[in-house]
Amino acid sequence: MSDLSGGPSLPQERRVVTAIPGPKSQELAARKQRAVADGVGNVLPVYVKRAGGGVIEDVDGNSLIDFGSGIAVTSVGNSAEAVVRRATEQLADFTHTCFMVTPYESYVEVAEQLADLTPGDHDKKTALFNSGAEAVENAVKIARAYTGRQAVVVFDHGYHGRTNLTMALTSKSMPYKHGFGPFAPEVYRVPLAYPFRWLTGPDNCAEEAAAQAIDQITKQVGAANVAAIIIEPLLGEGGFIEPAKGFLPRIAEFAKENGIVFVADEIQSGFCRTGQWFACEDEGIVPDLITTAKGIAGGLPLAAVTGRAEIMDAAHAGGLGGTYGGNPVACAGALGAIETMRELDLNGKARRIEEVMKPRLRKMAEQYPVIGDIRGRGAMIAIELVRPGTKEPAADVTAALAKACHQAGLLILTTGTYGNVVRFLPPLVIGEDLLNEGLDILENALAELA
Ligand SMILES: *Cc1c(COP(=O)(O)O)cnc(C)c1O
C-alpha cells in the first residue's frame, strides 16, 4: 500500500486528536477569510498536510478517512507512485512548451489511450483541455461545427460546469448560477428518468421520461436544429441519479435517427469510478463524443473530448486548444494514472467497494427510514435522505449527518438538487478496513440523529 499512500510514512488510519477543524486549521481559515474570495467555499476547512491511499492528514495531526477523493478525482490515490514518478520526470525535462506551438509525445499518447479505452471500435480522435467545463464547452463547439446546428439539449438535474456556457447547461440555480446571468442561448432542458422521484413510480419511468424528453425536443426545439444532446450517464452533482434502465439507449437512438451528436459527460463517472472504464458501458451505449476530466490524471488538471474522428475533425485548425491544454506534466500524470488503473484493476476494486457498501447501507436503511433511496454503482454510491414515510427531501438531516461524520473523522460530501443526498466517492485504492470504519462512523452518526 505504501506506493499509493502519499509516501510510505503516511499511516492508513483514522486519527482525531483535536477538534475538527483544529487550532492550526482555524488559524489558516482566518487567513483564508482575509485573502480568498468568499465565493470560493470549503466543505470542511481542515487544512491538508498530506493525503493518500484512503486518508487525508491535516496540519493539526488529524487523519480523516476520505470518502470524497477531492470530488471523484484521486481514484488512484493522492500521490500514486506512477503519477508522481512520471510527473516528476516530466517536470525535470520541461514544464511547458504549448502543444499548439511545439508538440510532445505524451499528449499524443494520452489521445491514443483515450481512443483505446472509450467505448466503440470506430476511428477516434481527442483534444485535451484543463478542466471539465472547458471540455464540455469544446464538445459543444465541435458538435456545432459538425452539424451546422446551434441548439443543445440537456437534462433536469444535470451538472456540466461553472463557465458561462456550462452554467447554462447546468440545471441547479443555487449555488451554481444564482446572480450570474445572462446565460448562453440555445440551451434546452428536458426531463430525466429519475426513478425515485418519477411521479408515476419507477416502473414506467424510462419509457415515460424518454417520451416526454423526445416530445419536447421535437415540438419545442425541432430535432433538425439540435447539434448535441449532452447527458451524464450517471449523474454527479444532481444526486448520483442512475437514469432508469432503457432511458439512455432510447435517447441515444433518437440522437442517431436525427443526426444529433450524442455526448456522454463522464467527467465524474469515468475512469473506473463505477466499476467500468465509463458508466455508459453499463447499457452498451457508444457515445459520439465523451468528455472526461476529474479521475483522468491522478489529481493533475487535465480534461478531454474524445470521439468519432469525422466529428472531432469538423472544427477548423486553430479552432480548438488553449495555452495550457494537455500540459505535459498533466499528460504524464494521466499516463501514470491509467497505468495504475490497469495494473491494480481499479474497475475490480470499484466493484468490490460497491459489494462492501451496498449491503451495509441497505441494513442501515432498514433501521433508519430517513434513508429513502440507495443508488449508484462501483465507488459512486449515494443515499437520498427524506422525512420518514415520505419523499420530502431532508436537507437539514443531510447537513447534520455530514457534520457529525466530519467531527468523527470521516470526510463525506453532500449533493443533489434538493441538497439531501450523501455521496460516497472513496479513492479506489482505499483499504477495506478503512472503508468499513467509515461506514461504522456513518452508522453511528445516523443512530445519534435518529
Ligand atoms: C465536475 C464536473 C464538470 C466540471 O468539471 P470542472 O473540472 O470542475 O470544470 C462537468 N461535468 C460533470 C459531470 C462534472 O462532474
Automatic annotation (TrEMBL):
Gene Ontology terms: biological process: gamma-aminobutyric acid metabolic process
Pathway(s) annotated for this protein in UniProt: Amino-acid degradation; 4-aminobutanoate degradation
Source superkingdom: Bacteria
Organism of derivation: Streptomyces alkaliterrae
Family: Belongs to the class-III pyridoxal-phosphate-dependent aminotransferase family.
MF terms in GO: (S)-3-amino-2-methylpropionate transaminase activity; 4-aminobutyrate:2-oxoglutarate transaminase activity; 5-aminovalerate transaminase activity; identical protein binding; pyridoxal phosphate binding
Record field: catalytic activity: (S)-3-amino-2-methylpropanoate + 2-oxoglutarate = 2-methyl-3-oxopropanoate + L-glutamate; 4-aminobutanoate + 2-oxoglutarate = succinate semialdehyde + L-glutamate
Protein's name according to its UniProt entry: 4-aminobutyrate aminotransferase
This protein's UniProt keywords: Aminotransferase, Pyridoxal phosphate, Transferase
Organism taxonomic ancestry: Bacteria, Bacillati, Actinomycetota, Actinomycetes, Kitasatosporales
